[in-house]
Amino acid sequence: MGLQRPRDRVCIRPLDVLDNFGPKGRSLTDIADRLDSESLDHVVIRFAGDSGDGMQLTGDRFTSASAMFGNDLATLPEFPAEIRAPQGTLAGVSAFQVHISENPVHTPGDIADVLVAMNPAALKSQLTRVRTAGTIILNTDAFDERNLEKCGYEVDPRTDGTLDGFTVHEVAMTTMTVGATEDLDVKKRDAERSKNFFALGLVSWMYTRPVKPTLDWIKEKFGKNEAVVAANTAAFHAGHAYGETAEIFGHRYQVSASPKESGTYTNITGNVATAWGMIAAGQLAKLPVFLGSYPITPASDILHELAKHKNFGVRTFQAEDEIAGCGAALGAAFGGHLAFTTTSGPGVALKGETIGLAMSMELPMVIIDVQRGGPSTGLPTKTEASDLMMAMYGRHGESPMPVVAASTPANCFDMAIEAVRLALKYRTPVMYLTDGYLANGAEPWKLPDVSTLPDISVSFTTEKNGVDDDGNAVFHPYARDPETLARPWAIPGAPGLEHRLGGLEKANITGNVEYDPANHALMTDLRQAKIDGIKNDIPEIEVDGTGSGDILLLGWGSTLGSITAATNQLRKQGKNVDRAHLHHIHPFPANLGDVLNSYDKILVPEMNKGQLVKLVRAEFLVDARPLSKVSGLPFTAEEIASSAIELLEANAEGAK
Amino acid sequence: MTDVFLDPTKRGHWTTDQDVRWCPGCGDYGILAAMQFLHTELAADPATEIKKEDTVFVSGIGCAARFPYYMDTYGMHTIHGRSPAIATGLAVARPDLNIWVVGGDGDMLSIGGNHLIHALRRNVNMTVLLFNNQIYGLTKGQYSPTSEVGKKTKSTPMGSIDPPFNPISLAVGARANFVARTHDLDRKHMINVFRQAQAHNGSSLVEIYQNCNVFNDGVYDGIVKRANRDEMMINLVDGKPIRFGAENDKGVVIENGSAKVVNIADVGEDALHVHDQANPDPSVSFALSQLANDVNSATPFGVFRSVEHAEYASAVSDQLVEANNQMGPGDLDALLKSGATWEVD
Ligand code: SF4
Question: Which DSSP string do the residues of A246-265 spell out, in sequence order?
């Protein structure tokens, strides 16, 4: 994924970089403070290079420095689909976009203000993502004939007018990086690999990012290999100094800190937030966490993150396949653990039969689907939200299952806990949807006070709960709680409660195998009623707006940022727009029908061909209209705003 | 709890109130009885003191997979082929339990082959009972992955063309540390093998030659019928030379890595292979398993191998303890603050 891998580097003798690096005697931050900077309220920067160039790392560092500086931000990492695409080709381009602002940020930015392109392939593939008159910073060392040819440039784009209208800065990043590390005992080839830190230094200077966090981070990350620390530090300083001294950068840009609610913040990606939510849920439920999983992009990082925290009593089981991951989780649930399985679309397809068994056994577990482009292998590294129908209906038989979805990277934490709450309380598998965009995207997160997180614990049944025909006390595994319709959860080890669960239809109350059709109809209804009842146990949907707008933008999942930004744009244009976002999709919040019925126009932007819109049309008979996008990228605010205007104007003309 | 075990000679304490629904005469009945007797014995034995509430039977789909309904323990009747995976999750979560996995040759070797080999290689504490009747019973008579080549069934009217698995060889190849074979006509032998399998710390596989009297009746008669046993059953006894035959005149030698049946008169007694079930070298177990690849050859019964090896679930638990020692007990607040944080006033 284009990360620098410290272990690949050749180990050389330790040395003290700072002594070997000029300009001597001056602190870089001092210099920076003396220079004028132009104030911007936001900027969108796109780092792009070959997947071996370390662009994700560069973007990540820039993001962290910005977050600590106090900007609000959103990120969009884009990985190549192939792990080892040929170097220098279009297929091998890895990009990272970050949107920083002194105002609240909702999206990673529709279009970049600045593109850093480390090679011709990066320039060629990313040029359409830069705004008119935007800034392009090129690593000229990579613009040789071979590289131009590899990505299909017949003529050097720097000379044929391709870049007319852009502000182009041509920087010999590789040469300067090698120069900066000359005094170090680093081989040239290894020194070249630090060029991403040169780029980071340069962009950090341009946007007045604090320097120290990055220097500290380099030390911490590569500390075991002092040569690498030295080379990366030198490259970073060189880039920073280049920005300061080279004439081409007349001024710097300042993006001020975003005013925020007071508290402690951290920068978090969706996958880490999900993993931490799972750990938190275990603590809040007072149950040991069990994850059965099989590696799959873009969900694997949840497994990786959880595996680091075994000191919370977390058991992670990397199974032989997706089916076994889900099966093992179900086995653990039977044993009284808080069970999860994590995957992406293709894995959900494989887990379907086991999820059906979990529904029949009425055992709690959470299935986490980090959605990606489909069908089949589809676009593993691109985002899409096209598994909603599968989450709702992708099983045989009548098998209603709660579905919840996260809306922002930090929200993944809350929704993981919510999914667990529902699973435990109602003894049901719950489908929890995120997507590739949330998984890898980051945002500043105001940390919750852990003492205020909800208690979601439930108790195991330890006593017999019924009598048989002869009047003996017995355990009835399918005698339900009258309020929630949840069945008792008795786990092995409880004497006298021995019982057998299975996928065959069970008699109501006793749970014995039962083929009677009337009983099957009753059990089908009971399973449905149990899930339907959840709508009274979840928050009502809130409308952002007057409640009487000319149009409602209804969203779910990771479209929240784009829809919010679009809503703000439309309001600035004087449109009367309301907005609402679903976090619970099955069942829907109890008031959703009333909300939808109070609008003439409803637009439902989705990263699929219109799945939620079908559900709301079917359930509420409202004329909701789809806005779909399946190009592997999140919506831009502009796309949503223009579609909303179209729908509003259609209304004005009386046409539908 | 003592009242439950007042009369340990009766298997009744481990039976449920559910009617057993196998075909009359099915070999499964004998296996069920052996299991109930064994558990009555294990419950009464102060060395094991197995309790019903700590015992779980997990099965997939098929005739054999109905087994959990008839054992008065915890049970999961799951989905086709997946029982080893589901049981693995249970075993990892609950290393304190006595876990049995029950399935037929279709369940375990066809749809569930992948899960079986991985459960065996991991050495998770569970005992897998493979009811091998060389046929699909529940779906009414199609050939299975252990059926002989040329088997005529509803799905193979001209005879099957794919060669069968030898389940013992497969298990050895999958690095199973406990592998044994028994048959449904000899309750004592079954109980003896099951007891050793249960005592083994890790995954155990027991292949049971089981007669499906409806769709594949008498498939093992040539071996396990009383009149044929002496000549056709090779009894593996730990620490003893392997010999068999009505006159006890035959034996097994291992030559160039292969096992061979010989007349003792030809090779001399000292040449016989001395069975060592604790021998970690799987090639010897494999060689023995290859003595019989069909139902017409003299076939070894008993424990092929019983090798001590690190058990998976306890290794998982050990890592939790180690993580706790290294990092201290999990602290949620500290976790949330483990990345770079900053304050906003
Ligand atoms: S079909 Fe065969 S294996 Fe199944 S219950 Fe009947 S006799 Fe037993």
Answer: -TT---EEEEPPPP--SEEE
